[in-house]
Amino acid sequence: MTRTRLDRAGPIDWEQVLSRVVLVDDARRRATVSARRAQEFLRLAPDELDRLTAAGLPGANVGGELRYDFRDLYNVGLYAGFGTSQAEQALQVMMRFASRPVEQLLTPRRWTVQIRGECAACRDGGAPEGTWQVQQPDPFPGGGRLLSWQVRPGLARPAPSAGATSPAGHLAREPRPPDLLVEGVVETIGVRRQIRSSRILAEIERFSALNLRWHLLTEEQWPDIERFHRLGVTDCVMASLYLAERMTRLGIEAQTRCGWMTGIVNVSHGWLEVRDEDGAIKTVDLILPQLAGLLAPGSGAYRQLASGSLINRVIRADCPADQPLVTHRHGAGPVDVDLLTEVRPVLDRREQS
Question: Which residue stretches belong to region Disordered (predicted)?
Answer without folding.
Answer: 156-176
